[in-house]
Amino acid sequence: MEIENSTSGQVKWRCPSNIALVKYWGKYGRQYPSNPSISFTLSEAHTTTSVSYEYSKEKLEDIHLTFKFEGESKPAFENKIKKFLDSIRDVYPLISHLKLDIESSNSFPHSSGIASSASSMAALSMCLLSIQKELLGEDNLDINQASNIARLGSGSASRSVYPEIAAWGQTEHVSDSSNDYAVEYTESIDPIFKSFHDDILIVSADEKSVSSRAGHALMECNPYSAARFQQANDHLGIIIKAMKEGDLDTFGLIVEKEALTLHALMMASEPPYILLEPNTLNIIREIQKFRSDNNVPVYFTLDAGPNIHMLYPHQYVTEVATLKESLRSYCVNGKIIEDKVGQGPIKL
After folding, report:
1. pLDDT given for residue 218 in this prediction
2. For a FRET experiment, which of 11, 12, 69, 208 has its CA 20 to 30 Å from that of 228?
3. Domains, in order of start, for the chain
């Protein structure tokens, strides 16, 4: 390994979360998806990560790391990151020569079902690839490698390194698709979908009672897993066709069906568990009624948590504003994160 540039420095990236339209739920092997997924990359729900590094010519046996989250030491997070970094020595051998000081912060509540692991692992992977670029004098940052490294920390993080729309998982519906990394997907997509807003209604900011990692593991014994994996692949084909044709009705049907299926799988796990809150269901009913009464294409989806993502095209902002204000009463302290389809990671 030939180091051409400075042996110490600092890199900083801001990476967004993403909201899956077709959900990844269930994995095998080394963090491979049991079914393909596709997502909107967000803009305002993001993680900012700064990494100061020092290169050592001597190979280090242990991972050298300090970590702070929002200015405070977080031993549980630090241990998780150490374990992750130790696990990627084969795909990122530079880690055996680095001492790292990491500081990270979120624009949204972590561990509450807004894919904080996606944005945080994506931000860390972009920092690692930037360090590699600086130390090795590489011309460009390999975004596929960044996606691959992010995947090993959090499967959905593989999609957060791309702008607008990303797909992950081998499928006949997406050319160049891979289980190793996600790919940007904008091929012939109707522009209306790139204008989508995502208002995240914070029903609960508490940490989830069951982590996504544990939820994925429970899919191994879920009696509906095989049918689910086939359904997800079929849904991917349907939603891609709808997005190419500008078919909002079919898009919304699949998005909502995917959200409800995800939580139905949790309820059918062994042991079963429920992450929905009463106000989650109240919001869903209000959105469905508003759509029916006003003929406005506004839809809901959820990640693995109780918080609602309300999706709609930009041209309906005025109409949806009245609905959004009426839904604040269901949210913690009236909190709504007003987000939209975004342009991916930003180097700071």
Report:
1. 92
2. 208
3. 8-185 (3.30.230.10), 197-340 (3.30.70.890)
